[in-house]
Structure formats: structure tokens, C-alpha cells
Amino acid sequence: MLVAPDKFAGTLTAGEAAEAIAAGWARHAPDDVLDQAPMADGGPGFLDVLHQALGGELLAVTVRGPFGEPTPAGVLRVGERAYIESAQGCGLHLTGGRTEARAEHASSYGVGQLVAAAVESGASEIVVGLGGSGSTDGGAGVLAALGATADRPLDDGAAGLEGITTVDLAAARRAVEGVRIIAASDVDSPLTGLFGAAKTFGPQKGIPEERLPAVDALLEAFAEATDRRTSLEPGAGAAGGVGYALLVLGGERRPGIDLVVEAVDLPARARAADLVITGEGSFDFSSRAGKVPFGVAQVAAEAIRPCVALAGRVDVGAREMRALGIEAAHSLVDHVGLERALGAPADSLADLAERVARSWSR
After folding, report:
1. Complete DSSP assignment for 275-286
2. What is the architecture, at CATH level 2, of domain 2-39+265-360?
3. Is 0.85 surpassed by the pTM of this model?
């Protein structure tokens, strides 16, 4: 069996989830061979999953967090390629619960510092995992950290963009000249508009509903001062607009799940298994948009192997589930209840895996 889950956000890392599923499965079927392949889609956990799969050298870096506080982060060097995780520089988990009052001041500056550190390490290619951000600044902070200047502060979140009319990107572009940049993202939203960074993801970062049009207008003004056409490209709205900053610098977008699938050699491992097991915290129809379960299910389908999902919650019906390529999906909350699912997530997931094994193990 191939066990390839994403993290269960807020409770288990992808590695911990894989271990719990394997432990529970082995209680019922101790003779089954269980191959653990923790996964990520570019968001939190991206760097850990790749480090475990690829090895390489992890360089310690201290950057500015969303509100300017010193924050530990890392750059993973594997050959000529460097990997960084945007959530380490501007992650929602770094906001310390201050999103309601200060959401519009959260900056992506630390992500730009990570890019600079990767360039300084000598990398010729930089892969930036996007997801789980706490900022909605259009990537202005990224550009500022790399040397961009403007007639308004670029390192004070969306709020700092009020009244912006001119931006000089020359220094930022020189800073990454000759380096290939890949934005690894599961999000295909543009920077602005109805499906843009503010209106789609702003509420989960603490931006009040009534402020969403105003923040979107700030990002529109920023786009007009930089590169309006690029702001409309799929993925520009990823990580609060960090995707836009990378595209403006000449970067290209690739689904994060595809990069991880390649890194862990998932297709070959799926072909060697009888069953593929995946999972995430909340399994719903948005999982189709480049998320781990959909990506893993696609690999399983190509290998002609069934795929089942174990999730904290399951919010799709049978028809939608099969459209995602999943044979069956099992809810942790339905199995053990919300209190135990949150209070003892590893044990609860192991119990659910043991139950599922009774149906699927030969």
C-alpha cells in the first residue's frame, strides 16, 4: 500500500499523518507492505517533504515575518536548485492571531529575503512553494526585499499601497537576473477581481468582509503601477499575490503537487502498490484545484490502482468524489467526533485507518 497524504492543517504534518495511517493499517494487516510518501502542494510543509525526499543541504536563514519580527526559515539546496517555502516568510501561522486588527499590514517581505538568500547561495534555479500565507500585499514585500522602490512603502502590506502611482522594478529584476524562478502553487486565481487574492482568500486572513473591495482596489492600483497584464495571469493571486511578484520577475508557474510527485517518484511507487491512500484536513470539491488528494488520485489512476482518502472532514458526495478519482473517502470527524479528532489527531487517524483496512486489505 502507498500512503501519500498531505498535512492535516493545524493538527498533523504530512509525515505524522502518513505514520498514523500506516500504524493503524498495520494493526489490522501487519503483513501488508506500507510505503510512506508524505506529500505537499506548495504550502506549509513543502520544504520538509522535499528535504525528506531529496536530501540536500538545508541553509538556516532569519527573515522578517509578516509584521517585521525576526523569523527562522530555511533554503533547501539540491544541486543547482534551491527550494523555499513562502509560508516560512509570511505564513498565516506567523500572524499570532493578530490578523483581525493588522491583516492589511501583513507583508511578504520575508519571502523576498528567502529568494535573495537562495540567489546568494549560488542557485541557478529557485522553486518557491506558495500557500498558507497571511499576507495580501500583491507580493509588494517580495519586490521590496529584492530592491524595488516606489512612491509608497512596499513593505507595509496592502495598507502601505494606498495612493501608489509609480514602482521601479529595475533593481529587483537585476537581483534575480540569470536565475530561473518557478512559482509552485495550487492556486490559479488572478491577482485582482472577483476571484482574486483579496476577495477569495482575504477573509481567512482576517480582512473584514466590508474591507475586501478596498483591498482589491489597492492591489488593482499596484498592478497598474507595475504590470497589469501579468496580474491577470493564473497563479498571480497565489499566497496573497506573491505569485504575482514572482511572475513579474520573469518566473513561471507550475502546480506544486506536480513538483512533489516528481521529487518523490510517486508514479513508480504507485505502480508497485495494490492501493493508494491519500488524505488531508478537509476533503471537498476545491481539492480538485491542484490539491494533494486530486494529484495523488491522478497518479493512482495512471498506474491503474484504486485510491481512497482519509480526511478530517469529507464534504463531497459520491459523484463529486469519483470525479476527483477517489474510490472512497472516510471522515475522521464522522468516525471519532470533532473533540477527539482535534484532541488526539494521530490516534484518531490510526483508528480510522485500522477500520478502513478491514475493507481494503486482502
Report:
1. -EEEEEEEESGG
2. 3-Layer(aba) Sandwich (3.40)
3. yes
